[in-house]
Amino acid sequence: MSNYSNTQEKLSRDDMAQTVAADIPSGAFVNLGIGQPTNVSNFLTSEQGVTLHTENGMLGMGPVATGDDIDEDLINAGKIPVTELPGASFFHHADSFAMMRGGHLDVCVLGAFQVSEAGDLANWHTGAEGAIPAVGGAMDLAIGAKQTWVMMSLFTKTGESKLVEALSYPVTGLGCVSRIYTEVAIFELRGGKVFVRSSHGISFEELQSKLPVELTKA
Amino acid sequence: MAPRIANSAADAVAEIKDGSTVLIGGFGNAGQPMELIDALMECGAKDLTVVNNNAGQADAGLALLIKERRVKKIICSFPRQSDSWHFDEAYRAGEIELELVPQGNLAERIRAAGAGIGGFFTPTGYGTLLAEGKETRVIDGKGYVLETPINADFALIKALKADTMGNLVYRKTARNFGPIMATAAKQAIVQVDEVVQAGDLDPENVITPGIYVDTVVALGGNK
Q: Which chain B residue lies closest to A93 (C-alpha atoms)?
């Protein structure tokens, strides 16, 4: 009774975004982090009825604004001009983060430097000597939504796994990540165990040989 | 009491003294009270503690205050940006103190100050570098960090309109920190496009009630 599946090709960035979009429950309130997660919005369908939240104070965010629609008072958390959809609302920063921290958002999708098998997330600071730290809303987003999903490449440029037993980068949030989308596999984290929902361009056995955590087929 | 209607941005910020703690609204350029910040620059106040989400962008506003070393400490969530060169230089030179606060905790600390709350336990930041040295507590199996209010001497805010009672309405995502900052400062100084007569704003639509507003200056606007 396994749900595990395998495909021959790696997932492209668009494939990953499309897969995340398809997994978002219809009617959900969702926050998409800056970077790769933003691309998910391009694959959400109107039938899904998903409402996007931006932490600088808006629900019902529409696509990026162009031309005459650009309004300096209407921006997203990445400070990019956006549009508003019918039914949008505005609110101040404390309400916006209360909405998040209070568990009212269904899904938050974030990028990551590392995720541990316990679901600990590192995505705000490399801890490098001389680096100027900046956290923004990362820690609030990590622990606030009902579900936190990560999109990342599974390996660093030097080939090390970003799915780890224990974080070596500074923590953003503990035990918060429940799902990880990568170009070669999709993982579900439950009860301290790592389940592989699918692998792409790599067999389960080869994937296991490259990762420092024990894998189970979902 | 109805707020003072200042006749210029310089007049509006004239009481800001050396060593003041100043909340500055805005997220990026949206809601940033640029003219009030420029006036603060002109008035010469120094040794300021500034609270803003960022630490200045490019060569304008808060970035210039930092460049001129008028800010001794900044409390913010996201100082480092592609165009935060004046902050980066001051920070690397050890000439500005940084208190880094997760954005939601920053907002709630400001809200708490305005609401008379002495502190609160938040899950954000628990188990991270930003909770080091802070009191923590496990409540119903979940970890929390004690955070304290950020009280200030002044708030500089941008809104769309004020009426003569100081009631404010904002515009779109330029609202951001404005409403909470207005509550947390001894004196809230607000720049608006336009001041209208009491009764001209629908009370149902007022976002910041005038009780929080001390000084208003109308600067016109494009919108």
A: B176
